[in-house]
């Protein structure tokens, strides 16, 4: 079974369309939340995911978009974008966002936005956070987003090792007792590479492969400015930070 794993699309439908074209044919598309927030086209992103039958989980931005208290912890730019999102999404988008659970198990994979123990908010940024989360995993594989940085953590013989996979890198999932892997962000990468990021999971071969896809960043920046979204959020897309 081949699965495309997408995270942190953030209402960037131009990036999502480039990724969907790159994915081609797979058995399933899974998403790890933060479908909306920051970007200018939340309705179009949700419509695409709905059309391709993507299954996934809610992120902090998705919860905030449908009235959740998460907005109180946002920085001023994120909050301004979220207030814009709240007033611009249509009822179909809001209903779809409300339907996303905090955790979802698909075979031997657990899907969360943040972390297994704190699925909406916690950032997985160190081996000690990975170690603390392993007891909360009912599966071997954990898929997470939220940091917007591609990453592969593996527990082998009690040791935890993390690697930031390069574009095109394939990591073997064999022999690990637990794995926590992050596909990177489709719509707002923060690892210094502005291209959209996604990950291909081949469950039969037990491999994960990271992909980067260029898209029309100036077009998205124009749409953000036209919508009145914070200029800094548009600017950062160019740097991938
Ligand atoms: Zn995010």
Determine the number of helices (DSSP H or I, runs of at least 4 residues).
8
Cofactors, ions and other ligands in the entry:
zinc ion
Strand ordering within the main sheet: 3-2-1-11-12-9
Going by CATH, the architecture would be 4-Layer Sandwich
- Kindly provide the name of the CATH class: Alpha Beta
Element order, helices and strands? EHEHEHHHEEHEEEEEEEHH
Q: What does the largest sheet look like?
A: 6 strands, mixed
Radius of gyration: 17 Å
- State the low-pLDDT regions, or none: none
How many discrete structural domains? 1
The coarse overall form would be globular
Q: Provide the helix percentage.
A: 25-40%
Total beta strands: 12
Cα-to-Cα separation, first versus last residue: 33 Å
So, the CATH homologous superfamily? Metallo-dependent phosphatases
């Amino acid at each position: 079974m081949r699965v495309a794993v997408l995270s942190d699309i953030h209402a960037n439908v131009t990036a999502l369309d480039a990724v969907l074209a790159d994915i081609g044919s797979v058995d399933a598309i899974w998403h790890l939340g933060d479908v909306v927030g920051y970007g200018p086209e939340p309705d179009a992103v949700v419509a695409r995911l709905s059309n391709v039958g993507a299954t996934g989980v809610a992120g902090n931005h998705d919860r905030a978009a449908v009235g959740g208290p998460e907005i109180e912890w946002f920085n001023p730019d994120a909050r301004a974008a979220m207030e814009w999102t709240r007033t611009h999404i249509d009822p179909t988008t809001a209903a779809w966002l409300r339907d996303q659970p905090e955790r979802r198990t698909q075979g031997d994979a657990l899907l969360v936005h943040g972390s297994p123990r704190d699925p909406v908010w916690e950032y997985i940024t160190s081996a000690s956070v990975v170690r603390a989360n392993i007891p909360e995993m009912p599966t071997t594989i954990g898929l997470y987003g939220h940091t917007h940085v591609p990453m592969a953590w593996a527990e082998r013989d009690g040791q935890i090792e993390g690697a930031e996979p390069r574009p095109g890198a394939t990591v073997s999932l064999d022999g690990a007792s637990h794995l926590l892997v992050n596909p990177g962000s489709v719509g707002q990468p923060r690892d210094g590479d502005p291209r959209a990021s996604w990950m291909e999971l081949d469950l039969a071969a037990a491999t994960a492969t990271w992909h980067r896809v260029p898209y029309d960043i100036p077009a998205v920046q124009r749409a953000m400015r036209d919508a009145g979204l914070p200029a800094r959020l548009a600017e950062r897309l160019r740097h991938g930070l």
